[in-house]
Structure formats: structure tokens, C-alpha cells
Amino acid sequence: PSPLGPTPKLVIDLERLATLPKEKAGALARYAATIQSQRGDYNGKVLSIRQEDLRSLAVIYDKSPTELTEELISWGVLDAEARRAVESF
Ligand code: C2E
Ligand code: C2E
Ligand code: C2E
């Protein structure tokens, strides 16, 4: 177990995501919308996603999970805590 506590969740900021240009964030926005639809979870400002989903998104974006995480942090879609969630991959 990590001395920093349990692995943090990957929490997507949906309001921030909605402000980003489609060329960058379109694939992530469609993925998040699909998860919301599967859960019937439409009213959130944020969406907790599976670690497994970040792996899938990394394939879609043709990056490593670490690289994609850094990009999503730079966009303000994930917070810096997300780095620790990806370290355990
Ligand atoms: P499923 O994977 O068969 O999960 C069935 C139900 O188990 C989910 O219903 C949820 O109540 C619970 N569940 C499964 N894994 C988790 C988990 O890690 N955390 C929590 N809190 N609950 C979990 P729900 O939410 O109505 O989702 C229905 C189906 O939609 C899921 O069936 C899955 O096929 C899909 N889905 C929902 N959210 C996600 C997601 O974040 N990623 C992926 N890949 N699929 C998702
Ligand atoms: P948390 O995981 O730290 O989430 C804090 C708040 O962020 C949640 O308050 C909710 O308003 C929002 N949030 C986080 N992820 C999502 C999401 O995927 N969809 C939506 N719509 N909102 C999200 P809330 O709902 O009052 O939950 C308070 C705490 O209760 C959560 O803190 C968590 O510790 C627990 N909790 C709620 N739902 C689940 C769950 O499905 N699984 C587990 N393990 N804990 C849950
Ligand atoms: P959480 O609900 O606090 O779950 C934390 C971790 O516990 C999950 O990390 C997963 O490894 C495990 N877990 C919880 N419930 C189940 C389950 O029913 N089946 C299995 N096989 N494992 C389970 P993970 O997968 O990275 O998910 C992170 C967070 O994403 C979850 O935190 C929850 O907030 C959200 N989430 C993931 N899948 C679903 C889903 O199907 N439905 C809903 N409503 N939320 C989900």
C-alpha cells in the first residue's frame, strides 16, 4: 500500500471538458458521454472513470497512459492527483 493513502480516483471535470476544442477533446467527450449514458448518470459536474478506461483512451489518443494523463492534467480535465492513479499501472 502507498504511504500516500489509497489510489486516487480518475475524476473527469465535465464542465472543463465541455469548454475544450473538439479537435483535442472530442474523443474523450464522446467516451465520457457513453459512460454517462450506460450509467444513467447525466447530472454530474464530474465523472469518475475506471482505470481500465484510461488505458482504452490512451490507445485512442495514441499515447501512453502516463502521457495522456499529463495532457489531461494540462487541459484541466484531470487534477494532479491523477498521476498517482496511473503510477499503479
Ligand atoms: P457492468 O460492468 O456489468 O456493471 C454492472 C453494475 O455493477 C454497474 O451498473 C454498477 O452498479 C456496478 N459496478 C461495476 N463496476 C463498478 C465499479 O468499479 N464501481 C462502482 N461504483 N460500481 C461498479 P451501472 O453503473 O448501471 O453500469 C451498467 C453498465 O454500464 C456496466 O455494466 C458497464 O457495462 C457500463 N459502464 C458503466 N460505467 C462504466 C465505466 O466507467 N467504464 C466502462 N468501461 N463501462 C461502464
Ligand atoms: P467522492 O468519490 O470523493 O465523490 C465526491 C462527489 O463528487 C460525489 O458526491 C459526487 O457529487 C461527485 N462525483 C464523483 N464521481 C461522480 C460520478 O461519476 N458521477 C457523478 N454524477 N458525480 C460524481 P456524492 O455523490 O454525494 O458521493 C459522496 C461520496 O460517497 C463519494 O466521494 C464516495 O466516497 C461515496 N460514493 C458515492 N458513490 C459511490 C460509488 O458508486 N462507489 C463508491 N465506492 N463510493 C461512492
Ligand atoms: P469505486 O466505486 O470507489 O471503486 C473503486 C475500485 O473498486 C474500482 O476501480 C474497481 O477496481 C473496484 N470495484 C468497485 N466496484 C466493483 C465491481 O462491481 N466490480 C469490480 N470488478 N470491481 C469493482 P475502477 O474500476 O478504476 O473505478 C473507479 C471509479 O469509477 C469507481 O470507484 C466508480 O466511482 C467509477 N465506476 C467505475 N465503473 C463504474 C460503473 O460501472 N458504474 C458506476 N456507477 N461507477 C463506476
Descriptive report:
This protein has 89 residues and is mostly helical. It has a single domain (10-82), classed as Arc Repressor Mutant, subunit A (Orthogonal Bundle). It is 57% helix and 9% strand. It has a two-stranded antiparallel ribbon with strand order 1-2. Helix 3 packs across helix 4. One ligand C2E binds next to strand 2.
Write down the oligomeric state: single chain
Determine the mean pLDDT: 94
N/C terminus separation: 14 Å
Q: Overall 3D geometry? A: globular
Task: Kindly list the characteristics that best describe this protein.
mainly alpha; 89 residues; two-stranded antiparallel sheet; Arc Repressor Mutant, subunit A; single chain
Fold topology:
Elements (H helix, E strand, L loop, with lengths): L9 E4 H6 L2 H18 L6 E4 L1 H10 L4 H11 L6 H6 L2
Antiparallel strand pairs: 1-2
Helix pairs in contact: 3-4
The structure holds ligand C2E (3 copies).
The site of one ligand C2E has 6 residues, from α2.
Task: Briefly say what this structure is.
With 89 residues, the chain is mainly alpha-helical.
